[in-house]
Amino acid sequence: MSAFQETVKRAFDIFGAITALVLLSPLIVMVFLLGTLVSERPLLCRVKRYDLNDRAFDIWQFRSTIVGPEEGASVVGQILLRADINEVLLFLNVLRGDMSLVGPHALTTPSSKAYGTRFAANDLDRVKPGLVSWAQVRAQTDEGNSLHRRIDADCEYLANRSLSFDLKILFLAMFSRGTYS
User: Fold this and answer.
1) Domain coordinates of the chain in residue numbers?
2) DSSP count for the chain of H helices, then E strands
3) Rounded-to-integer distance, Cα 150 and Cα 155, Å
4) Which long-range contacts (CB under 8 A, 24 or more apart) does 151-155 make?
5) Distance separating alpha carbons of residues 131 and 92, to the nearest angstrom
6) How far apart are CA 45 and CA 106, in angstroms?
7) C-alpha–C-alpha distance, residues 90 and 48, integer Å
8) What is the DSSP letter of 107?
9) Where are the beta strands (DSSP E) in 72-146?
10) CA–CA separation, 66 vs 69, rounded Å?
11) Helices 163-175 and 3-38 meet at what angle, rounded to 10?
């Protein structure tokens, strides 16, 4: 992507994140109120994620599980998980610049070696993890969702990265049926 396209992508990310947060603010308030009424534990949790260069950043999510002797998902947690509401706060990471609306998967562990063999580190520097990834869209049609397939799909995204490809991924993610990983 050219510097101009990177600037347009960032502006689109900011606009999209603000729009989503404004539209979803009643839902966020409702979940927060409901969660504080039915749970004694904090409703928000901070989780560490990594970009493709193994830089760590924190994301905030609504807590969807009960930790302790009765481990599992609460009724509220099950609703949050099924509707992907627990990850609505990721739009804040887009505003902060840790993530983008579209990009490769945010990693749960440092895994740059899996990508570093295919791409130079300076190529990966400019790429932010996405709320939506090509791997998620591909998982709807591919059998299975192994780490190897996710890495292949992320590498395909990196090799073909453009504004038009991002728009295609967003369109497919919003209007396709299926479960995202």
Assistant:
1) 3-175
2) 8, 6
3) 9
4) 151/114, 151/115, 154/52, 154/104, 154/105, 154/115, 155/115, 155/118, 155/119
5) 11
6) 17
7) 12
8) B
9) 72-73, 100-102, 130-132
10) 9
11) 30
C-alpha triplet 45, 49, 55: angle, nearest 5°: 135
Query: For residue 132, which amino acid is it?
Result: V
User: What pLDDT was estimated at residue 28?
Assistant: 83
What are the backbone angles phi and psi of residue 83, rounded to the nearest 5°? -95, 5
| The pair of three-digit structure tokens given for residue 104, joined into one six-digit string | 């490769």
Beta strands in 24-176 (DSSP E): 44-50, 56-62, 65-66, 72-73, 100-102, 130-132
Predicted TM-score of the model (pTM)? 0.77
AA letter at 9: K
Please give the distance of CA 142 from its chain centroid, rounded to a whole number.
20
Q: For residue 173, report the phi and psi dihedrals to the nearest 5 degrees.
A: -65, -40
Sequence-separated (6 or more) residues with CB below 8 Å from residue 108: 49, 50
| pLDDT tens digit sequence for 51-100 | 887 888 998 887 655 444 455 555 555 666 666 676 788 899 999 999 99
Looking at residue 140, what is its pLDDT?
61
d(CA 167, CA 78): 30
In this structure, the chain runs to a length of: 181
